[in-house]
Structures are given as C-alpha cells and as structure tokens.
C-alpha cells in the first residue's frame, strides 16, 4: 500500500502513514496528540512546501466529511479552502507572524515585535524609533522567536543620566551583575548632584540663620540619604565585580558607612551633642572616597568572569 510522509503540526516530527488515512483523525506516535493526516501535502526532502507550525486549540470536526481541496481550521475545526490563510468562521490568521526579541539600544529593555524586515518600529517602553534590521542581526533570524541568550549584543550606548535612572529604578537592588565605568560614574555624578540639591535648604538656612530652613534641609537630606544608600552601594558592588573583586563585601562596608552618615544626620536633627562621630565620619569619608575613585577608574576584566558577562560586549 502506498505511503505518505508529513510533519506533525504539534511536535513537528516526521510521520509516515498509509494513503488510505488521508484526512483521517489519528494520534501522533511521537507526542500522542490528536492530529489530522493531510490530504494533499506530501513529504519532500527539498522542502517544496512550508510547514506552518500552528498549535491546535479547539476540537476538530469530523474530518471524514472534508472534501478535496479543503482543510480543517486548527482553531475552530471548520472546513475551509486548502489555500486559505484566514479562517472565515473564527476570523483567525492561519499564518503565524514571525516575532523577534532583542534589547532596545536606548532603554535596554527586552522588546518583542513582529519581524518587519526593513520597516521601522517603536520601542513600547521608551518610544524610540527602531530599525528592525539594524537592531537585530540578520544571520540569526529564525522562524520561531529567537532566544535572547543566543545573541551577542553591542555595548549599550546609554547616556550618563540613563545609567543613573537604571541604577535607581531597574537595578535598585542589583548587586550581582557587572557595571562599566560609564555606568558607575554616571550614577555617582547624578547622586552627588541631587545630594547637593537636597542640602540647598540647609545651606540657605545657615546663611540666613533661619532655623526652620536648617531643620527642613536636615529632614530632606536625611530622606535623600535613606533613599539612595542602597543603589549607591549596589552600583559600587557591580563595579567591583567588573574588575574581579568581591563586590558584596564592599557593598556591606558602604551600607555601614551610609548608616553611620544617616545616624549623624539624626543626631544633628535632634540637636544631640556628639563630637566623636562627625570627626570619625570625616576621616572615613576621605579614605572611602579614595576607594571609590580607584574602583571607578580601573578597567573591567575583558570577557566573562564569575560575576557575569562583559558589559562592553
């Protein structure tokens, strides 16, 4: 008896069946899913036809009533024309649109959009215009969605302020990855800038001898220090990881120093006399500043290390 070969539409593996089973509902010997033996699609080693990997999501109709030149809609089970690419019953598109995943070069978010070749698209996170071909290597396009882990991306060309925004939002508690020098200095630059702004009321109050402004400035400074102590310690940890040091240890030390600074602010706010802690913090601050500068200036290790991938690759 004549035999035909075809692909299982569920698991994608080859199946051989007798010609007498064309159009009949059977169970796939590989995945045990209920499928229909195609009537007019033969197996061809030269790929003379394109396999559409459409998942069955609805019960199939009695396939024995399917006429020649028709096929079954995999979504609603109705009989439709063999060449149809759109079901007139359930209004489903029978050709699955290829989608691609890549990292937006502006906001560093994972984006999944239709593979529009040369057409332009917009990032759903930052709204920047993207060129699909330029943002995604052509030689690794696949029929199915491509895994992010299989792609080597070029360095993210983010601005200093964008790195700062990442540090205080998306990477607020991230101390395990690696941070390039630009990310470290961008974060520290704007943390310092906004830290000076938080002390503006205290500076004005001191100049005008206004105790209300001084106290208000002390409260604002305290709240700012409390909110930024974690991202500052984490970006230091990621920078240390990038040069091969144990970033977690430095993060703990940074948190301890930050905690003492906050304690000093509370003492100042409550007008408690204490001459030892400010002097101690001044000395430690100078020494810790040297550590910051050294860690921030050393070039990171090339290639992947035990803390993660190279942020420059």
Description:
The chain contains seven helices and ten strands. The chain folds into three domains: 3-81, no CATH class; 99-150, no CATH class; 160-297, no CATH class. Mean pLDDT is 73; it is low at 42-64 and 133-155. Helices cover 37% and strands 12% of the residues. The radius of gyration is 31 Å and the shape is elongated. Strands 1-2 form a two-stranded antiparallel sheet. The protein has a two-stranded antiparallel ribbon with strand order 3-4. The protein is of the alpha+beta class and 313 residues long. Helix 3 runs antiparallel to helix 5, helix 5 packs antiparallel against helix 6 and helix 6 (247-269) runs antiparallel to helix 7 (276-297).
**How is the main sheet built?**
2 strands, antiparallel
Average residue-wise pLDDT: 73
Kindly report the spatial arrangement of strands forming the biggest sheet.
1-2
Distance between the termini: 58 Å
Number of strands: 10
Low-confidence sequence ranges? 42-64, 133-155
Q: How many structural domains can be distinguished in the coordinates?
A: 3
Relative helix content: 25-40%
- Which structural class do you get from the secondary structure elements? alpha+beta
Radius of gyration: 31 Å
Tally of alpha and pi helices: 7
Q: Please provide the ordered H/E string of secondary-structure elements.
A: EEEEEEEEEEHHHHHHH
Strand content: 5-15%
Shape: elongated
Keywords: Membrane, Transmembrane, Transmembrane helix
Pfam family, one: DUF805
GO cellular component, one term: plasma membrane
Organism: Victivallis lenta
């Amino acid at each position: 008896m004549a035999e035909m070969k075809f692909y299982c539409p569920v698991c994608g593996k080859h199946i051989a069946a007798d010609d007498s089973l064309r159009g009949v509902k059977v169970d796939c010997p590989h995945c045990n899913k209920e499928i229909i033996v195609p009537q007019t699609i033969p197996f061809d080693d030269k790929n003379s036809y394109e396999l559409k990997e459409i998942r069955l999501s609805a019960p199939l109709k009695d396939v024995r009533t399917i006429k020649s030149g028709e096929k079954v809609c995999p979504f609603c089970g109705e009989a439709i024309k063999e060449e149809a690419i759109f079901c007139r019953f359930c209004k489903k598109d029978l050709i699955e649109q290829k989608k691609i995943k890549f990292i937006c070069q502006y906001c560093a978010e994972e984006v999944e959009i239709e593979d529009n070749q040369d057409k332009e698209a917009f990032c759903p996170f930052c709204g920047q215009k993207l060129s699909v071909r330029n943002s995604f290597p052509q030689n690794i396009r696949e029929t199915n969605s491509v895994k992010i882990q299989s792609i080597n991306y070029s360095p993210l060309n983010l601005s200093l302020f964008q790195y700062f925004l990442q540090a205080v939002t998306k990477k607020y508690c991230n101390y395990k990855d690696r941070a390039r020098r630009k990310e470290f200095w961008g974060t520290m630059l704007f943390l310092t800038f906004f830290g000076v702004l938080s002390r503006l009321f205290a500076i004005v109050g001191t100049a005008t001898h206004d105790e209300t402004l001084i106290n208000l400035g002390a409260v604002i400074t305290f709240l700012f220090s409390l909110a930024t102590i974690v991202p500052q310690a984490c970006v230091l940890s990621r920078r240390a990881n990038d040069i091969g040091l144990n970033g977690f240890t430095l993060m703990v030390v940074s948190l301890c120093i930050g905690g003492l600074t906050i304690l000093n602010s509370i003492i100042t706010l409550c007008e408690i006399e204490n001459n030892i802690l400010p002097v101690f913090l001044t000395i430690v601050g100078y020494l810790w500043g040297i550590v910051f500068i050294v860690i921030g200036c050393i070039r990171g290790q090339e290639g992947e290390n035990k803390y993660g991938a190279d942020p420059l690759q």
